[in-house]
Amino acid sequence: MSTPLIETIHASKIFEVRKGLLGVKKHIRAVDDISLNIGENEIVALVGESGCGKSTLGRLMLALLKPDEGQVKFRGEDVWSLRGEEFREFRRNAQLIPQDPYSTLNPMKKVISALYPQLLKYKIASNRSEARKMSAELLEMVGLSPPEDFLNRYPCRLSGGQMQRISIARALSVNPSFIVADEAVSMLDASLRIEILDILLNLRKKFSTAYLFITHDLAIARYFAAGERIAIMYLGNIVEVGDTEEVIQNPMHPYTKALIMSVPVPDPKLAKERGLPPLRSLEIPSLVDLPSGCKFHTRCPYAEKICEEKTPELREVKNRLVACHLY
Amino acid sequence: MNWILKRGLLAILTIYIVVTITFFLVRLMPGNVVDMLVITYMRDYGMSREDAYAMVKLLLDIEPSKPIWQQYLDYIWSLLHGDFGRTMSSGGTIPVMQPIVAALPWTIFILSLSTTISFLLGVGLGMLMAYRRGGLFDTGASTFASIVYAVPNYIMALFLLFALAIQIPAFPPRGSYDVSITPGFNLPFISSVLYHAFLPMMTYVITSMGGWMLAMRSNTIRVLGEDYVIAAEARGLKDRRVAMTYVGRNAILPLFTTLAINLGYMFGGSVLIETYFGYSGIGMVMGLAMSYRDYPLIQGTFIILVTAVIVSNFIADLLYGKLDPRVKLGE
Amino acid sequence: MERKTNRSIVRIILSVARAWIYEPLTLLATDKRAVAGFIIVLFYVGLAVIGPMVVPLNLTPNLESAYLPPSLEHPLGTDPWGRDIFAQLVHGAPDMLIVAFLAGLITVLVGTVVGIFSGYSGGTVDLIVMTITDIVLTIPGFPLLMVIAAFLIGSGIEVNIFMAAALLSITSWAGLARSVRSQILSIKREPYIEVSQTLGLGKLHIIFSEIMPNILPYIVMNLILSMIGALYSYVGLMALGLLPYRPGNWGAMMHMAMAVSGTVTGVGSWYVLAPAAAVTILQIGLVLFSNGIDKIFNPRLREK
Question: Which residue in A168, A191, A280, B124 has its CB near the most CB atoms, within 10 A?
């Protein structure tokens, strides 16, 4: 197997929380011993409920956060040991598309200012007029036409969908090999989502970009990562990784099963037939007070004594990675 | 609990720093201040250089022979005992605390009354302006508020003095009470006090209310747009109730922090205002001290004045802490 | 070739003039009070610039013409020494405006630098700097100024315009520092800042190109407000006689007026009321003008 593009090796990120000046210090393991790799030009959808640590993992991969344990590697090199030119090269190759379209652009600056500074910095354009031309081309690529209409506008005069497209154009402007899309369509109207996802997929073909596609919506993940991989995350751990369609049709981990069963079905008859997801408890444990052993054991219908005592490792089972004592 | 402790410590630290600043103020310009005073004493009182020097040393509480840290400790020690030295203009006979203690209550009386009145008026009008936003009342009141906010309070004192005490002698131009009446808890005295206090209070009230009006207006407008207010109205709660408990409470809260700044502004202006009105409060004492270059008295009034502001600030913080549930829960 | 360059220079000048003069003025014009404020301030600036050249100042005492009421020859009357009050006001105007503006500038510079430094550094540095700022904020500024000025004048130290301006800013920077810092803290977390980091745009770019435009409205607003505060303190200190006398200085005139005859009583009232009114009108102009400034610098407000 060739060197993965981005790789985390037993990476953890721990946040300290303290109540008041004299309170007790608590530790939150937002990301707990995660080893995940993404190959060149590959899509990995990262799915999980709010607060499970997906965004934190994304930021670790972008080196916006430093891991407290473990490593983050880019094409085989530890990112945090890179210096100077090499680090700049990594930076150019790892971009972010944030969640909220309304705060993704600087409200006090024109649209064009989101695109040209990096073009000049990385010498993709050699002067301002060339940068301006390229910015216009980028806007065309994301479906904002005619681009001259948009270049000089301020974000307050744009719709959510338009701003998110500019956000995509911005991420692609430096031709990165890796993009983290953090809930990139979650705050858009449902009708827009497929359109934006299609733009991302088309441009991926053109620029050969790998994606870490973070979302809480299984249906979106299924669409975007079709034919690629999906990873399920729960309370800081990855519990299952595999081919998207296979995981969704044949989930192995109990949490994955519950997640899939929780997706609302429009047909009330079918929904009634299906029944409730098999969970012992609907309460998600707080990140500050984690259960021992397997973090899911408090809700898992198949839990046994070993699940309380020992944390299951992510092991390869039949072409999939699962972290469960059942396998 | 935590939060009160922090604010309390900060208050004490601030007072301490002010006290230290005053200490070094005299000593950082020692050569000139001391020398000029020595010359003055030699000239005005015909003293010899040694006597004049000894006099100045006594009055300013300086012992240049002692090491400075020792002087500093002596200084702090005597302050804690309420010994602020003796006034120079009395030739060292009257302790500094004496005129201060006599004058302070008058200023506190006027300022606390004025603050309360201007706050209530300002906040009430501000809310009204917000509810009638864009209308004639709002535009007029906003303009009025901006104008009185802009006028320096000591200049307003001059204008009021001129208009209402001289041109139309409706109010007395000087004094804190009619000296022919014996002080005491009797009606003639109290009414005389109020009569003489009216113009100074009007000065403070008019110049302070503008700020309150505008701040309350913008806060209220902001709160009126918040979801929980719209939800309350949608639930069918009576307008008055919504206004008082939901809107009013949330809009007022941030204003408490400006109470302290406003108090500082009033104390600051009090020097000129009380001088112009001949009102025997601590401001006038400080003014006189400065015109006579009575340094111990200047120091003393300054420390007491600043302490008064800091303490009031702290009380305002406590009030705010009681009213804002986010603070109560110990953020 | 040359004609082309000339044309593009003209185009640049026109576009700059449009963005910086025409557009702001049209935006300002929507708020009538702001326009009034702007006109007042402009009037004072004009007075300060042209006035001293046009209006002659004669400071030699002429006791025969003391306390004259306003007339064609003396538009605001004469002072206790028979000198024209209006001329004194006009000649004092540049001093007032320069000191107020300088003090405002120093306040804003110090406040912004401290705020950005503290907000961007975060952690312990932020805690220390903010505690100091809080302390400075609690100390009432004008009383402190009075005491310092009293000691300065007693020690015979020469106080020039720059020293006076710096002195006037001694506590006023704290308010802006605090608000700039909290702005920085909230902006730091915005997604577009994160993306600036992934784009590798560098700390300097982030501070000056991304963050600054967002806090510029506060800074400009605060410049005007600081000028208002500085004017208050400057005139106040002069009125107490705590700063060295400058002829024509409005506060000094007020001080002289009260010292000489308790002038508010009828006869000499012009001598004290004229400078008082001059200060007041300028303050009103500044306040009204500041209300309109926000609109110019905040594109979000323009949509209203």
Answer: A168
Question: What is d(CA B303, CA B296) in angstroms, rounded to the nearest whole number?
Answer: 11
Helix residue ranges, H only, chain C: 2-17, 23-28, 32-54, 85-121, 123-138, 141-154, 161-168, 173-188, 191-198, 203-205, 212-239, 250-261, 269-297
Domain boundaries defined on chain B: 12-80, 100-323
- Test A64 with C198 for CB contact under 8 angstroms: yes
Which residues of B fall within a CB distance of 8 Å from C241? 290-291
Residue in C191, C200, C303 closest to A98 by CB: C191
State chain C's maximal CA–CA distance in angstroms. Answer: 79
Q: H helices within chain A, ranges in order? A: 54-61, 84-93, 116-121, 128-141, 147-151, 160-172, 190-207, 218-224, 244-249, 254-262, 268-274, 305-309
Q: Does B39 touch chain C (CB under 8 A)?
A: no
Secondary structure (DSSP) of A162-187: HHHHHHHHHHHTT--SEEEEESTTTT
CA distances (Å), origin B92, targets B85, B289, B296, C97: 8, 14, 10, 43
d(CA B318, CA B1): 10
Give the residue from chain A lying closest to C210, CA to CA.
A106
Q: Going by C-beta distance under 8 Å and a sequence separation of 6 or more, which residues neighbour residue B249?
A: B323
Q: How far is B331 from chain A (nearest CA, A)?
A: 6
Rounded alpha-carbon distances, angstroms, from residue C81 to A2, A126, A287, C60: 97, 72, 81, 8
Confirm or reject contact between B314 and chain C (CB < 8 A): no
Q: Answer whether CATH 3.40.1080.10 is correct for domain B100-323.
A: no
Closest partner residue to B33 (CB to CB) among C140, C154, C235 is C154
CB contact under 8 A, C151 and B309: no
Neighbour-count burial of C182, counting CB atoms closer than 10 A to its CB (0-12 exposed, 13-18 middle, 19+ buried): middle
Given a contact as 3+ CB pairs under 8 Å, which chains touch A? B, C
Give this prediction's pTM: 0.82
How many Å apart are CA A172 and CA A178, to the nearest integer? 10
pLDDT tens for chain B, 331 residues: list them: 677 788 888 888 998 898 888 888 776 654 566 677 777 777 777 767 777 777 777 766 666 667 777 778 877 888 887 777 777 777 667 888 888 888 999 999 999 999 999 999 999 999 888 888 878 888 899 999 999 999 999 999 988 888 887 777 677 767 777 677 677 777 777 888 888 888 899 999 999 999 999 989 888 888 887 777 777 777 777 677 666 777 778 888 888 878 878 888 999 999 999 988 888 899 999 998 888 878 888 888 999 999 999 998 888 888 887 777 776 554 4
- Total residue length of chain C: 304
